[in-house]
């Protein structure tokens, strides 16, 4: 069954939108993942997870959205950032457009850690404007089956590490050039700013990983990646089911908007 927005024809699209009511929106980034991995890793992998999940729990999958928050990697070739206000404005318009095409529920599936705070702020801002659709947010790799995977040989890591290298090897075979990973492993956080105890700075990530690569990438393999994609897709299909079944949040949203309107009328 076709589930990818860009692969659907009008009759299939309308049927899926009418029967399932859910569109899922994978969001990644364009950024350096060391010297051995492609810039588009986050969007490619999260989109693959979404397509697999939609094969189990039907819904429409929007194409990968590349333009997340990645200011911390502006110093590297391959990174694309928009101004902060434009990032929010375009993303809001995108949700409106998806809804205008017949979807009552939109599930944002985040595949890039640097988007987390941006997306949480964006979700809170949805309370400011009355719309006829409901937005949900989940992280592609936060589910039980993914977290229970017992296949990783190196502890810790994250960005461009054993796990992420494996994920892209399985999602886009041939895109990893392992010989180009020449950093001594394991790549541990540097913590040059550790004197700033309990103080947050936008350069915390750059401080720890100035080459935008972590952990032990050389332990990555396509087999591990296949297992991880499959676990993440299982987890995500359960989230999609939960979103489909949910009637409480849409009703609460209506009640909330009614109270906002009533407050304005009483001022
Ligand atoms: Zn990544």
Give a description of the structure.
This protein is an alpha/beta fold and 267 residues long. The chain has one domain (5-260): Rossmann fold (3-Layer(aba) Sandwich), CATH 3.40.50.10310. It has 9 helices and 4 strands. The chain has helices at residues 10-20, 41-56, 84-100, 116-125, 144-147, 162-171, 204-208, 222-245, 248-266, and strands spanning 22-27, 60-61, 105-110, 134-139. A 4-stranded parallel beta sheet has the order 2-1-3-4, sandwiched between helices. Helix 4 (116-125) links the parallel strand 3 and strand 4. Helix 2 crosses helix 8 (222-245) and helix 6 (162-171) packs across helix 8 (222-245). The radius of gyration is 20 Å and the shape is globular. The termini are far apart. Bound molecules: zinc ion (ZN). The site of zinc ion has 6 residues, from helix 2.
């Amino acid at each position: 069954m076709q589930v990818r927005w860009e692969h659907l024809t009008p009759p299939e699209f309308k049927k899926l939108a009418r029967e399932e009511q859910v569109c899922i929106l994978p969001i990644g980034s364009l950024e350096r993942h060391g010297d051995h991995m492609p810039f588009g890793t986050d969007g490619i992998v999260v989109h693959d997870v979404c397509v697999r999940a939609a094969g189990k729990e039907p819904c429409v999958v929007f194409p990968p959205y590349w333009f997340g928050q990645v200011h911390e990697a502006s110093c590297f070739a391959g990174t694309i950032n928009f101004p902060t206000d434009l990032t929010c404005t375009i993303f809001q318009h995108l949700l409106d457009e998806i809804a205008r095409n017949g979807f009552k529920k939109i599930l944002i599936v985040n595949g890039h850690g640097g988007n987390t705070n941006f997306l949480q702020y964006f979700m809170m801002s949805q309370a400011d404007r009355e719309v006829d659709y409901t937005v949900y947010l989940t992280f592609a790799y936060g589910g039980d089956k993914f977290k229970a995977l017992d296949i990783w040989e190196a502890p810790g890591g994250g960005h461009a590490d054993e796990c992420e290298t494996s994920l892209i090897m399985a999602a886009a075979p041939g895109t990893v050039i392992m010989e180009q990973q020449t950093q001594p492993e394991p790549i541990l956080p540097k913590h040059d700013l550790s004197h700033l105890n309990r103080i947050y700075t936008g350069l915390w990530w750059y401080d720890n990983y100035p080459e935008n690569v972590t952990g032990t990438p050389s332990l990555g393999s396509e087999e591990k990646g296949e297992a991880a994609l499959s676990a993440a897709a299982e987890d995500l299909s359960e989230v999609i089911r939960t979103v489909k079944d949910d009637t409480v949040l849409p009703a609460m949203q209506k009640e909330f908007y009614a109270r906002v309107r009533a407050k304005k009328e009483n001022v």
